[in-house]
Amino acid sequence: MKLEERGIEIEFTDALDAIIFDQMDRNHPNYHGISDMHRVDFVVEFPLDIVFVELKDPANPRARPEAIADFHREIQNGTLAHTLAEKFVDTFFYRWAEDKLSKHVHYLCLVTLEHELLQSLSDDLARRLSPAGKVSSRWQRHPLRSCHIFNIQTWNQSFPKWPAKRLSSTDSQPH
Amino acid sequence: MIQRLEISNFMSFKRLTLDLSPGVNVIIGENGTGKTHLLKAAWALAHAATARAKSPDQSTEDFEKILASNLIRLFLPLDDRLGKMHHHGATDHAIIAAQFTNTHRFSAKFFNNSRSVNVKHSPPPPHLPGEPVFIPTKEVLSFMKGFASLYNKYELSFDSTYDHLCLLLDLPEIRPESLHPKSKWAIEELERICCGRFHFYGGGKVTFKTENSEYSANAMAEGFRKAGILARLLQTGAIQPGISGPLIWDEPESNLNPRLMKDLVQILLELARQGQQIILSTHDYVLLKCFDLLMDQASGDHVLFHSLYRGDGRIICSDSTPNYLQIAPNAISATFADLTREHVTRRMGGLGK
């Protein structure tokens, strides 16, 4: 199953289901419909796991200058991890309401920056999603099995069954 | 300034040629790829070329014997034998050579049974650069007192870069009017970073002074002592942009708080802009990335990244680029990629594989 967002395509070759979660066009399937909620880009289902995927593509040569400026502002003021965390939490909430959260949840972000920069961002995101890495003794399960931030290179090294690539301008289709 | 280094059959190197930037050179590579040996060879050649130019009347034989002895004190080979620095198994001579200008070249050659080196050099230019400076990985302010006399009397397990650095640090300060304006700026910046200044009484006695108090240098953080070394070398004129030889610094990041790295890189870039050649090695991503982020080509910055790695047959090779993203292989970057792979393996099992 291939999904595309902002010129990056990921093929989840072994997925049971894969949807564009932030679909805000009511003429398409899986219309989200609540613009006030933060949304990850894709939700992908496997036999025992659910993977939320968020793409950030500052390296996209066709990205709007305002979007790149916004992204750099989020990096500079340290709110990028906060934004990514909000997307996870609202998506989790939404999928719970859909009664589609019965498996382990993983949150993977694909951000087109050098992977050296992504390590600290990954740590920051993980801290925000389970504050300070703490788990309550009352919890019967953890809301998040794993979260990490990749670039295209480390994504492809880590997930050979989910190849990601940047589409050329002629490949890219609006959705 | 060193334009080019050429090394054959020396220590861990089979054959290596490195073209250096007149500005900043950042050498990276995994442990065992010869970074420190390369820095020491650069220092030895620049030091020897300067010494030779200053003493043209010294007999070649004497000069070669002294250079052989200096190489032994610098590289500390087994049994203090020059021949132990010959690349294991090589059938040709070991050669280290530096090209300083288009016409000034200096080389030293020896074999595995040599007791002395064979030096060749072209006539030095009329305005020969000053001596090079080598800052080793360990800071020296904490053990400077009495070090020079102990070093000369006993066999200490320190290479000669420590002795040489201690001697430079104990020099008197140069006259204020001789201090380069940017050296003065750099000294003030370093004192701001350390919130005070190191005071050198001579004989290796060093203290740290703030506006109201004086402390033992040993009471200060090691990172501050490293910053203090750079400030002192500027005060004594051992480092004088445009005048002194290359500043060679082995792992400046050791014991330095990563938050100080940006300030240090800004100082090094400014010194390089004023004509100070800098050659350093690092394992540190923050230091490496700071050079990439802070260099300003419009200001004349010229930073070259040199990656040392073991290629076919485990031979040490190099690749140089002015573009951080094109460093290949990048041992530091690869470590972060390894962390990502480790995370995925531990937390996600077989998903996506």
Q: How would you summarize this macromolecular structure in one to three sentences?
A:
The complex is a heterodimer of chains A (175) and B (353). Chain A has 175 residues and is an alpha/beta fold.
Please write out the topology.
The complex is a heterodimer of chains A (about 180) and B (about 350).
Chain A: E1 2-5, E2 8-11, E3 17-20, E4 42-45, E5 49-56, H1 65-76, H2 80-97, E6 104-111, H3 115-129, E7 146-150, H4 152-158, E8 164-166
Parallel strand pairs in A: 5-6, 6-7
Antiparallel strand pairs in A: 1-2, 2-8, 3-4, 4-5
Chain B: E1 4-10, E2 13-19, E3 24-29, H1 35-54, H2 60-75, E4 94-99, E5 105-110, E6 118-121, E7 133-135, H3 147-153, H4 160-169, H5 181-194, E8 197-202, E9 205-209, E10 214-216, H6 222-235, E11 247-250, H7 258-273, E12 278-281, H8 285-294, E13 303-310, E14 316-321, H9 331-348
Parallel strand pairs in B: 3-12, 3-13, 7-11, 11-12
Antiparallel strand pairs in B: 1-2, 1-4, 4-5, 5-6, 8-9, 9-10, 13-14
Helix pairs in contact in B: 1-2, 5-6, 5-7, 7-8
Q: How would you describe this protein?
A:
The complex is a heterodimer of chains A (175) and B (353). Chain A has a five-stranded mixed sheet. The longest helix of chain A has 18 residues. Chain A is of the alpha/beta class. Chain B has two domains: 238 residues, Rossmann fold (3-Layer(aba) Sandwich); 99 residues, no CATH class. Helices cover 35% and strands 21% of the residues of chain B. Chain B has nine helices and 14 strands. In chain B, α5 runs antiparallel to α7. The interface between A and B is medium-sized, with 23 and 17 residues.
